[in-house]
Amino acid sequence: MMAEIGKPQNRSMEGIPLPNAPPKCKWALDKTKCGSDPHSHISRREAVAHNSILSSVLEAYGHTPLIKLSKIAEDEGLECDILAKCEFMNPGGSIKDRIAVRMIEEAEKDGSIKPGCTLIEPTSGNTGIGLALVAAIKGYRLILIMLDKNSMEKDVVLKSLGAEIVRVPAAPFGTPDHYISIAHRMQREIPNSYIFDQYKNKWNGIAHYDTTGEEILTQTGGQLDMVVIGSGTCGTLTGVGRKIKEGAPNCKVVAVDPYGSVLAEPSELNSGPIKSYMVEGIGKKFIPTGLDRSVVDKWYKTNDKEGFVYARKLVKEEALLCGGSSGSAIAGAIKAIKDFGLKKGQRCVVILPDSIRNYMSRYVNDDWMIDKGFMEMPAKLQTQWWWNKPVSELDLSIPPVLKPDSPCYDAVKIFKDESIDFIPVLGKDGEVVGVTSMTEMTSKLSNASVNGSDPISKVMFKKVETVDVTTTVGHLSRVINRDKFAVITKSVSSGIKRKQILGVANGTDILNYIACPPVQNGLHE
Questions:
Q1: Out of 85, 96, 200, 301, which one is annotated catalytic?
Q2: pTM
């Protein structure tokens, strides 16, 4: 099911085939050019009867509803029908349930996996949740490699399903530290293990050709004028796009790609100052093997702000509890509808890939949106007497510090002797590499997760916000609302630029300051 795309610059990564290797599939809309279809397809899946009993959750995926978006269409002055394909209503909360079931079942059929096998996959989280659902039912061990940027909500769901999570920082594509490289390295090291590699796995696109695309044609009776699809691993785009082109040849297939990704064509669309993006589940820094650009009529780029704003509109105005990439798809759809001039009586189907569940601490959260610059700060806050005061006015004291290999006993003694709640942890060059807290230490020791002789590195927060002493108290309060604490530093020039730690601020420090405004001429500020 994979069409020819441009050759990658690098064909191997530590001896493994790259996920952007040229595809072997010769699919073409003109069947005289490709001959017979070499792949097997499942027969049409009948919709689940809600008055029947299913043997397991694996029978409940797919057949998601098409829902008309009346309010958003009206707000945007659009005459055509916008129909949302609600993939967040799948059991695992995303469209990836479809490919998880198909990839595992096909691997079982051809003998690639058997009972007792360990399954491995690099994922942004949704494919991982789908695989975890199937693995839980079938009894497989599952290891998932995820980036640090992916939401913690996904982590919690995956662990509850029994999956093992390996979190890694982002690394350049094609390097040993890239999360796909790490997944393949683990697969080589763990006996009796198997990696699905969704970027290359032919059943990714075929699953959507057989189910998602087929459902859209059935639900609309083939009467649709545009379908809008976000691009990530590109299985949805390829599978649905091919099915639509075969079943509704006049329908426009529109692909949506975030700024910072490189999937869109022409390549000039991918140029510009934005090199990263926060929306999850769409966009890539390489061209997946499974991407068939031939089915796309036009690409649209979207930015994080418009994607998250439209995602919140989908929730508030249409009561659809979907994720951030759904907002990106709607943003792209609105641009496409206006460009193509869709009129009354015409239809645009937009695929909404995943659920709000994974993003409760992100785009759904007002504080997160404000901190990232996607929403305006409430004016009332900025008029408070303390908002623009410098952090240097807080009553902070320079704290003791520890090294990552210091034993937990040392931290316990400092907590007791100094009556403090946080201790910075410094690396070999004196940089802040973490913070350990009395609360976290108490939790880990009391539930036997660590013992007193274990290194502090096992009980420290590695993601730490450092705030310069010249920063405003208002900014610091935003950081503490989000992270609960912040390390306060000042720049020191002694031949080599470095940061001196002045303290660790928390909510109590902010409260003590703003609760007692200074008195001037007998009046409070």
A1: 96
A2: 0.84
